């Protein structure tokens, strides 16, 4: 029910009292029934479902309502879903870091192809800049165009 101060000051007092004493509309009666169903669903799901889960349950039960209406009714009924922490710790550090095992004994020589695979973190500067590939007043070149130009220039060396 709307507070009387939300009515326009220019409205007649009789219109306010007529509005206040009227019977609930069809929508208000439907909302009361939906709040009862939402409360049952909320309690059945251990008191922590959010709007999306309650909406899915209402659809399953045969109540075609929009998620926004479910949100509005849950807010009016004082029902709130559980909010997870914004940050979740995914790894717990040990006492000391574990060194990676040296499986090849620091011997990087190979007698044939595909016997030893190893990598090194190294930075390679591209011999060409994106701006050099851009035509006058043209669009920015794609990564594929930059990579193709880089391979062409590196093959010459």
Automatic annotation (TrEMBL):
Residues 31-86 form the HTH-like domain. InterPro entries: HTH-like_dom (IPR025948), Transposase_IS3/IS150/IS904 (IPR050900). This is Transposase InsO family protein. The lineage of its organism: Bacteria, Bacillati, Actinomycetota, Actinomycetes, Pseudonocardiales.
């Amino acid at each position: 029910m709307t507070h009387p101060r939300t009515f326009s000051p220019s409205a007649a007092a009789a219109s306010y009292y007529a509005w206040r004493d009227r019977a609930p509309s069809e929508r208000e009666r439907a909302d009361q029934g939906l709040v009862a169903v939402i409360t049952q669903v909320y309690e059945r799901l251990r008191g922590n479902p959010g709007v999306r889960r309650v909406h899915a349950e209402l659809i399953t039960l045969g109540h075609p309502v929009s998620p926004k209406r479910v949100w509005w009714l849950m807010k009016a009924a004082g029902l709130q879903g559980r909010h997870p922490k914004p940050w979740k710790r995914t790894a717990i550090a040990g006492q000391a870091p574990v060194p990676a095992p040296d499986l090849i004994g620091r011997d990087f020589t190979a007698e044939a192809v595909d016997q030893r695979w190893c990598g090194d973190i190294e930075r390679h500067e591209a011999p060409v800049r994106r701006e050099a590939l851009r035509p006058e007043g043209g669009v920015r070149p794609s990564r594929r165009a930059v990579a193709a130009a880089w391979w062409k220039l590196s093959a010459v060396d």
